C-alpha cells in the first residue's frame, strides 16, 4: 500500500508545470470560460491546442508514433491534475482525442491514421461524434440512422442529436445502422465522414443556458465513400466500446475538476458578505464546504483506486463507473452551494450559470440512473427485471 | 502508487475471517455478550493472541510483529464486519500506539510484551479533544504517584487489566499506568447506543500509578488520530458486511413475483449504499497508510476526513433497514446491530458536524490564509 508517487513522476509534474507557467496566458484561461459561442475565444483555444501539440503536450497518452509521449498511467494522472489546476482550456477535440482517436488507431488504415490523427491533435480539424439520436439516448444501440451500400458508397439518411461541436466540425465519427435485420447491437457500423458532404446539415442546438455547444445533424441521402468505414461492417458496437488501452487515467480529470471548482467557490466566497458578515465566518457554510471537501478528496481516492486496480491488472470498472456518478452529484452540489450563497449575479453570475449547466453532469455520457442500473447488475449482481 | 493488498495482508484477512466465522459468530459469540461489560471470553481473547493479532503493532523487540496501521486495518475491518465486541481496538491499537507514540520508559517494554502475547489487556484515555479542565491529575509524593479525577469516557475499562491515563502533572501531560484491580479505581458502565462497544466512566480516588513518560501535544494528537482511523476501519468493515447482507437479501426475497432487487427503486438504494462504502474505503485505506507513512499534517488531515464522513457512512445502516423492511426493524435481525456500530462511530469523540466544520475551516485556511488570520484577530 503506497499512495506516494515515484520521483520520476514528480519530475514529469515539475516539467509540465514549468511549461504551463511559461506558456498559458490569462487570455487563454478566459477564453476557456467563454465557450464555443464566442468566435474569438474559440480561435484562442485552437491556437492553444496547437501550441500544446507542437510542444508535445497535447496527447501525452498517445503512443509516440502518433505524436504522443506514451505517458505512463501516473504521468497521465499528473497531466490531468496539472492542466486543470492551471485552468488550461479543455482541448477543443476532447471527445476526438479520448474517444475517436483510439478507434482510429485500432481500426483505421495507415493512411487514415496519418491523415487524421495529427490534425486532430492540433485542432486543425474539429471532430464530432454522431451517436445519440432523438429516439436513441440512453438506449444507444437502438439508433436508426441508416447507411445503405450503393456501388462504392454508403448512402446515409437520418438524424443525430446532442452532437457536441456538430456545427463547427470538419469530421464526424458516425454510427449508422447497416443491417436492419440483425439484433440491434450487431447491425451497427462506424463511418468517418467529412462534414462538408452534400446532404449534411448541422443546426445549432441551444441549451438551457442559451449557449449552442451542441448541434442536431441531419443526413439526407448523403453519399459517403465506402472507404470511410472504420472497423468491420456491422462491427460498430465494438468500435464504439474501444477504449484507449494506453489511456488509463481518465478518471483523474473527475476529481481534479471538482477540486478546482470547490477552490474557486471558496475564493469567491472570501470576497462575499452574506447578511452583513463574511460568508466564510458562517459555521453552516463551513460545514457545507467541509462536506464537499471530504467528497472531493474521497472522489480522488476512488479514482486513484480505479487507476491502481487497472495497473495491477484487476478490473477498475466498478470504481470508475461509481466515480462518474459521484462526480456528477458532487458538481451539482458545489454549484448549488455557490448559487445559494452568491445568487444570480455574485461573481459575475458564474455560479448561476453553473447552477444551470451542472444539470448536464448527471445526464451527459450516460445518465446516473442508467449508470446505477449497470452497477446494480454488473457489480452487485442484482437481477434484471 | 500501489493501492493493492499484499499477499501477506490477504492471508491475514483470511485468517481473521475464518476465526470469527468459526469461533466468534454474531449468533454464538456477539449476541450472548451484548450485556457483558467485558464483551469478551478468555478463550476468544487467547485465540486472537495466538493468531498473532494482539501484537500486530507491537515492535518486534517487544515480542510483536512490528507491522503498520494498514495491517491493523485489515484486522479491524474483519472485526467490524463480525460486530466483534472485545477490547482488541483498545488494547492492540490504542494502548499499543500510546506506548509507541509517547516517548516512554520504565515498564513500557513489559506492557507491550504483555499486550503482544495477550496476557495484558490495556486501554487508554481520555481522548476527548480540548476538555475544559484536565480529567485526571497526578500527584507525586517521593517515588509514589497517585492519580485523582474522573475520565468521562474510556472504552473497554471492564476488560482491561491496565488503564493508560493521560494526566496533567508538573511537566504538562504525562502517560500513567494504573491497575484496574486497585480498590481506588471505580469503573462504571456508560450508556451506549451500541452494545457491542463497551464504554465506561472511570473515577480515580488517589489511585496508585506509574509514570511512563511525558505526553507532548503532538504525540497525543497522533494517538487520537490513530484511534479515529482504527475506528473508521472497524466501521467500514461493519458497513461493507451489512451491504453484502442487504444485497444477498434483495436477490432472494421475492414480492410481486420477482426478487425485490430487480425493482430499480430497491437496486438504486443498494447502489447508494455501495457508493458510500466505496468512498469510505478509499478514505480509510489512505488514512491507515498515512498513519505511519505520511507527514503529521497529512496524517491528521486524513483522520479528520475519515471521522467527518462517519455520519454519511451511518446511512448505510439506515438504508439497509429500509431494504430489509419490517424484518430489518426486529431485534432478532442483525441490521440494528450494524446500524448501532455505525452510529457509535459517528458519535465517537463528537458528532460529524463539528468535524465537517473543521474540514471546512481547514479548506478555507489552506486557500485563504489571510482571511483565516482575520478570524483569529
Report on this model:
The complex is a heterodimer of chains A (385) and B (377). Chain A has 385 residues and is of the alpha+beta class. Chain A folds into three domains: 86 residues, Butyryl-Coa Dehydrogenase, subunit A, domain 1; 113 residues, Butyryl-CoA Dehydrogenase, subunit A, domain 2 (Beta Barrel); 128 residues, Up-down Bundle (Butyryl-CoA Dehydrogenase, subunit A, domain 3). Chain A is 47% helix and 15% strand. Chain A contains twelve helices and ten strands. A four-stranded mixed sheet of chain A has the order 1-4-5-8. In chain A, a hairpin with a 2-residue loop joins strand 2 and strand 3. The two termini of chain A are 40 Å apart. The mean pLDDT of chain A is 93. Chain B is of the alpha+beta class and 377 residues long. Chain B folds into three domains: 111 residues, Butyryl-Coa Dehydrogenase, subunit A, domain 1 (Orthogonal Bundle), CATH 1.10.540.10; 94 residues, Beta Barrel (Butyryl-CoA Dehydrogenase, subunit A, domain 2), CATH 2.40.110.10; 158 residues, Butyryl-CoA Dehydrogenase, subunit A, domain 3 (Up-down Bundle), CATH 1.20.140.10. Chain B is built from 13 helices and nine strands. The two termini of chain B are 41 Å apart. The C terminus of chain B is likely disordered. The interface between A and B is large, with 55 and 55 residues.
Amino acid at each position: 500500500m503506497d499512495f506516494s508517487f515515484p520521483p520520476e513522476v514528480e519530475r514529469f509534474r515539475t516539467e509540465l508545470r514549468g511549461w504551463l507557467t511559461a506558456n498559458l496566458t490569462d487570455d487563454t484561461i478566459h477564453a476557456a470560460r467563454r465557450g464555443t459561442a464566442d468566435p474569438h475565444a474559440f480561435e484562442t483555444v485552437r491556437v492553444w491546442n496547437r501550441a500544446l501539440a507542437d510542444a508535445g503536450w497535447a496527447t501525452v497518452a498517445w503512443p509516440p508514433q502518433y505524436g504522443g509521449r506514451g505517458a505512463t498511467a501516473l504521468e497521465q494522472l499528473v497531466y490531468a491534475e496539472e492542466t486543470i489546476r492551471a485552468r488550461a482550456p479543455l482541448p477543443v477535440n476532447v471527445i476526438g482525442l479520448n474517444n475517436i482517436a483510439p478507434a482510429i488507431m485500432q481500426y483505421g488504415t495507415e493512411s487514415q491514421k496519418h491523415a487524421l490523427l495529427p490534425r486532430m491533435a492540433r485542432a486543425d480539424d474539429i471532430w464530432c461524434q454522431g451517436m445519440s439520436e432523438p429516439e436513441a439516448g440512453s438506449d444507444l444501440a437502438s439508433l436508426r440512422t441508416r447507411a445503405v451500400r450503393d456501388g462504392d458508397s454508403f448512402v446515409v439518411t437520418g438524424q443525430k442529436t446532442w452532437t457536441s461541436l456538430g456545427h463547427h466540425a470538419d469530421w464526424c465519427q458516425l454510427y449508422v445502422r447497416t443491417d436492419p435485420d440483425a439484433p440491434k447491437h450487431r447491425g451497427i457500423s462506424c463511418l468517418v465522414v467529412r462534414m462538408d458532404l452534400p446532404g449534411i446539415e448541422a443546426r445549432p442546438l441551444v441549451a438551457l443556458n442559451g449557449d449552442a455547444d451542441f448541434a442536431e445533424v441531419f443526413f439526407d441521402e448523403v453519399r459517403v465513400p465506402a472507404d470511410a468505414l472504420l472497423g468491420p461492417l456491422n462491427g460498430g458496437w465494438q468500435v464504439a466500446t474501444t477504449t484507449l488501452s494506453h489511456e488509463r487515467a481518465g478518471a483523474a480529470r473527475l476529481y481534479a475538476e471538482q477540486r478546482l471548482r470547490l477552490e474557486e467557490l471558496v475564493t469567491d466566497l472570501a470576497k462575499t458578505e452574506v447578511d452583513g458578515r463574511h460568508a466564510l465566518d458562517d459555521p453552516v457554510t463551513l460545514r457545507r464546504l467541509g462536506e464537499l471537501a471530504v467528497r472531493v478528496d474521497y472522489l480522488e481516492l476512488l479514482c486513484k483506486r480505479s487507476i491502481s486496480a487497472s495497473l495491477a491488472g484487476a478490473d477498475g470498472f466498478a470504481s470508475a463507473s461509481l466515480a462518474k456518478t459521484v462526480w456528477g452529484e458532487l458538481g451539482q452540489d458545489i454549484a448549488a452551494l455557490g448559487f445559494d450563497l452568491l445568487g444570480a449575479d455574485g461573481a459575475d453570475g458564474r455560479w448561476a450559470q453553473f447552477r444551470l449547466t451542472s444539470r448536464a453532469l448527471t445526464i451527459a455520457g450516460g445518465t446516473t440512473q442508467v449508470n446505477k442500473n449497470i452497477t446494480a447488475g454488473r457489480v452487485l449482481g442484482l437481477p434484471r427485471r | 502508487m500501489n493501492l493493492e493488498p499484499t499477499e501477506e495482508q490477504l492471508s491475514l484477512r483470511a485468517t481473521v475471517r475464518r476465526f470469527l466465522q468459526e469461533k466468534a459468530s454474531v449468533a454464538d459469540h456477539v449476541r450472548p455478550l451484548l450485556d457483558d461489560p467485558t464483551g469478551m471470553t478468555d478463550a476468544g481473547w487467547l485465540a486472537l493472541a495466538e493468531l498473532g493479532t494482539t501484537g500486530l503493532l507491537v515492535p518486534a523487540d517487544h515480542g510483536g510483529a512490528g507491522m503498520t496501521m494498514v495491517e491493523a486495518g485489515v484486522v479491524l475491518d474483519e472485526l467490524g464486519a463480525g460486530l466483534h465486541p472485545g477490547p482488541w481496538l483498545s488494547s492492540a491499537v490504542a494502548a499499543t500506539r500510546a506506548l509507541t507514540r509517547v516517548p516512554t520508559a520504565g515498564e513500557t517494554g513489559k506492557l507491550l510484551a504483555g499486550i503482544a502475547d495477550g496476557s495484558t489487556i490495556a486501554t487508554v484515555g481520555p481522548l476527548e479533544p480540548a476538555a475544559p479542565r484536565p480529567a485526571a491529575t497526578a500527584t507525586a509524593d517521593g517515588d509514589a504517584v497517585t492519580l485523582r479525577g474522573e475520565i468521562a469516557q474510556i472504552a473497554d475499562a471492564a476488560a482491561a487489566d491496565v488503564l493508560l491515563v493521560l494526566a496533567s502533572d508538573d511537566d504538562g501531560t504525562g502517560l500513567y499506568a494504573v491497575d484496574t484491580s486497585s480498590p481506588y479505581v471505580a469503573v462504571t458502565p456508560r450508556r451506549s447506543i451500541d452494545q457491542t462497544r463497551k464504554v465506561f466512566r472511570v473515577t480515580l480516588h488517589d489511585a496508585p500509578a506509574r509514570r511512563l513518560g511525558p505526553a507532548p501535544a503532538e504525540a497525543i494528537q497522533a494517538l487520537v488520530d490513530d484511534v479515529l482511523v482504527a475506528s473508521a476501519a472497524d466501521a467500514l468493515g461493519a458497513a461493507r458486511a451489512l451491504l453484502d447482507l442487504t444485497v444477498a437479501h434483495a436477490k432472494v426475497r421475492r414480492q410481486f413475483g420477482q426478487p425485490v432487487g430487480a425493482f430499480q427503486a430497491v437496486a438504486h438504494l443498494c447502489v447508494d449504499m455501495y457508493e458510500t462504502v466505496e468512498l469510505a474505503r478509499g478514505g480509510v485505506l489512505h488514512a491507515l497508510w498515512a498513519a505511519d507513512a505520511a507527514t503529521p499534517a497529512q496524517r491528521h488531515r486524513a483522520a479528520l476526513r475519515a471521522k467527518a464522513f462517519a455520519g454519511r457512512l451511518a446511512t448505510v445502516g439506515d438504508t439497509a433497514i429500509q431494504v430489509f423492511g419490517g424484518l430489518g426493524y426486529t431485534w432478532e435481525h442483525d441490521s440494528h446491530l450494524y446500524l448501532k456500530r455505525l452510529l457509535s462511530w459517528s458519535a465517537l469523540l463528537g458528532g460529524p458536524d463539528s468535524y465537517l466544520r473543521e474540514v471546512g475551516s481547514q479548506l478555507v485556511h489552506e486557500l485563504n490564509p489571510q482571511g483565516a488570520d482575520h478570524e483569529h484577530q
